[in-house]
Amino acid sequence: MLDTYIDQFTSQWSAEARKDFRQKPMAIRHNYHEHQAFSDMALAELLERHPRDMVDFCTMGEDATDRDSWRAGDPGDLTGMELIEAVRNGKLWINIRGAMNLDALYRPIYDSMMDDMKKADKTLRPGTAEAGILISSPTAQVFLHSDISETMLWHMRGIKRFRTYKPQLPYLRDLDMEAVLLEEQTEDIPYNPEWDADAFTVDLHPGMATNWPLHGPHRIENQSGLNVSVPFEISTPESRARNGVLFANGILRRKLGWSPETQSPYSLAGMAKRLLSKSIKLHKQLFGRKDVPMPCSEQTFDITKDAPDGFVDRKVA
Ligand SMILES: [Fe+2]
User: Fold this and answer.
1) Where exactly are the structural domains of the chain?
2) Quick one: 146 exposed, middle or buried, by C-beta within 10 A (0-12, 13-18, 19+)?
3) From ligand 1's centre to the CA of 285, what distance in Å?
């Protein structure tokens, strides 16, 4: 039998949104948030069937400049619904990595969203792409960071304040991006609250999505409700070219002591650097996201459904 349910879901792109997509920070509206796949029950079942080593359970502090307060926890044997209740009442952030592209229930939604983006920009040529599902507490935040891929954040539930800053000084240093690409650091970068005056800021409500230029630093502060959102991470020819130049610069800086400039990837020097990157044979590692260091690794707390923040710290031995 033909399943026409997914045909009910789409997104709306004005002429201006199409023009700004991947060039300037922008927001659109959609109705994917009405899909039952984003209900508590469906998400609880997903949490129970998704490979556990592909789910991150984290918490964080109150101070937006304290990125070191980001840490990992152990879900123990709580059920999916108990985990969702702990997130609703506590201060937690769960990332179900790859859920949208790997899980059979979510894959049609992923495909439909990807089609929407390709229709909006006929030049979009996705290489590898993936999308997880983020479930986070009403007061959770995500610290300032730059993703190595092109990103679009589709928001489903709750309200979150999204801010993005231009991918240039003082908000982003090439040095930091090089270190991310060389896997010396996570995608988190230094943040100064004074920069907020220069940010593109939007409160994301259910049924909104936002996109911003490649490497644009961004941070998120949840405002209310259980938050559910879907970040698409898309490797494109443009992101691979730019990352190739930055990666080569990182190598030249470290191995030869140079202070390289960041050229256009399509200039002669830029093309030479991209060749250098390829020749170092780290291409695959670089652009598959799997090897980027995760901000949370060592587990320092146990998720506990009745605790005030939804978790209890482990005692240091
Ligand atoms: Fe991000």
Assistant:
1) 10-235+290-309, 242-279
2) buried
3) 19
Say how many CA atoms lie within 13 Å of 202 toward its Cβ: 20
Cβ neighbours of 230 (radius 10 Å): 24
Distance between Cα 317 and ligand 1 center (Å): 34
The second-level CATH assignment, the architecture, of 10-235+290-309 is Sandwich (2.60)
Q: Is 282 in a helix, a strand, or coil?
A: coil
Nearest in space to 182 (alpha carbons), one of 131, 128, 255, 127: 255
The reported pLDDT for the residue numbered 103 is: 97
Q: What is the pLDDT of residues 47-79, one digit of tens each?
A: 999 999 999 999 999 999 999 999 999 999 999
CA of 292 from ligand 1 middle (Å) equals 13
How many A from CA of 1 to the centre of ligand 1? 38
Ligand 1 centroid distance, CA of 61 (Å): 18
pTM of the model: 0.90
Query: How sure is the predictor about 290, in pLDDT bands with cuts at 50, 70 and 90?
Result: very low
